[in-house]
Amino acid sequence: MSADTITRVMDFRGTYKGGGGPDKTVLNSAAQHDPTRVYLFVVYIKQPDDQEFQIPEMARKIGVKNFIALPDRSTCDWQCLTQLKQIIREHDLRVVHAHDDKTLLYAWLLRFMLPHIRIMYTCHSHAVYSRNEFSSLKEYLSFKVRQKIQIFLMQRYLKPVLTVSHDTKKRLVANGLAEDGVAVLHNGIDIDFWQRSSAQPVLREELGIEPGHFLVGTVARITYDKDLPTFYNVAEIVAKQNKNVTFVIVGDGYGDELPRAKEDVARRGLESVIRFTGHRNDLRDVYASFDLFLMTSLTEGMPNTLLEAMSLGVPAVSTDVGGIPELLEDGVGGYLSPVGDSASLAGHVIRMLQDSELLTRCGNASRTCIETKFSFERRVRKMEEYYDLFN
Q1: Domain check: are 361 and 251 in the same one?
Q2: 361 with 384, same domain?
Q3: Range of the domain at 13
Q4: How confident is the model at residue 2 (pLDDT cuts 50, 70, 90)?
Q5: Partners of 11 in the beta sheet?
Q6: Do residues 113 and 225 both lie within one domain?
Q7: What is the pLDDT of residues 191-250, one digit of tens each?
Q8: How many distinct structural domains can be found in the chain?
Q9: Do 13 and 32 fall into the same domain?
Q10: Most C-beta atoms within 10 A of its C-beta, which of 152, 153, 262, 310?
């Protein structure tokens, strides 16, 4: 294939600390794209004072060589934009692929500087909230303004906008995007890496979980969207009926969310029931430690954490939101409940922990679902087809 037919792409993402699901998608895509078809240069922008930023190490481990992380010092950092402009010119990049609000804004500004570039965007989540879900009118208006700016930018340059679930597509269309201008490309996962035979259940020993004692866990950034109060409610209900279970939350927040979460649990008197680990890099071993995965989110796109848990054969109980029903079929790989319905979620957890055959059956079904429908190789090949449209 000639150089003229290779699509030259800057995969562009803003993040913090160890990153989340979209970060894994970006880096794994870079590692697995066909170099005769796509030249991919990965750029991350980060808070300059973030001492826990781990994306470069993740990139190195999976063999991503075309990579750089740039400090982003303000809402619109012109020094950062100048560096981005230089990277695009130096590597002769023609497509800027943004993955979040900030990189979408920067891509739009870069196009004024470099009119030849084309912009594409993957929307990993598009939350819809009402006024009563914010502590102040100012916070609500800030959310609405930010969302309108996001839609405005997508309407200008990005066809098709890619989304990770049909639910996210519906939300974008409801907020003003043309239906034929939005395409769904489900997240995928490396099924060879994310498998139980390569993992060790390290958390069980670390937390003192004895054989026969259940460990129910979640992996989540500690934010409002994850609705941890409902997670606490579920743990409390389950613990009253089953003393043989511990719940664990693996993850950190943007600031002081983790210590505040620990305080909330202490006020409820649940310190012996709910444990926290903070941020972890050994997630494959973490999932292998769980008997059951519990997700209580208010909103999701297509959560990588659930993909990862299911790939390791961990059955799940989750809220019925976003793209989750497209991944976790109710009654097959686990069970779904309405948002905030602690009683329903707890009932599913209790039922599954009481039935070892059900746990095993749902775990096996979860792995099969990932193998047949959500392999990362399939996603990468499809993404290359979209890149071809911009060449």
Answers
A1: yes
A2: no
A3: 3-188+375-389
A4: low
A5: 42, 97
A6: no
A7: 998 999 999 999 999 999 999 999 999 999 999 999 999 999 999 999 999 999 999 999
A8: 2
A9: yes
A10: 310
Q: How is residue 118 written in tokens?
A: 């084309």
Co-location of 321 and 295 in the same domain:
yes
Is the pLDDT at 39 greater than 70? The verdict is yes
Verify that 171 and 224 share a domain, yes or no: no
**pTM score:** 0.83
* Cβ atoms 253, 223 nearer than 8 A: yes
Residue 154: count other Cβ atoms within 10 Å of its Cβ: 23
- Say yes or no: 84 and 170 in one domain: yes
Distance CA 60, CA 301 (A): 27
b (16+ CB within 10 A) / e for 40-63: bbbbbbbeeeeeebbbeebbeeee
Judged against a pLDDT cut of 60, whether residue 262 lies above it is answered with yes
Residue range 358-380, pLDDT digits in tens: 999 999 999 999 999 998 888 99
Q: Residue 375 has what DSSP assignment?
A: B
Element (H, E) at 294: strand 292-295
Looking at residue 225, the DSSP 8-state letter turns out to be G
Mark whether 228 and 315 lie in a shared domain: yes
Q: Give the residue, 47 or 342, on which the prediction is more confident.
A: 342
C-beta separation of 180 from 225 below 8 A: no
Structure tokens at 74: 């303000």
Output 375-378 pairs: Cβ under 8 A, ≥24 positions apart.
375/188, 375/189, 375/190, 375/191, 376/28, 376/32, 376/188, 376/189, 376/190, 376/191, 377/32, 377/188, 378/188
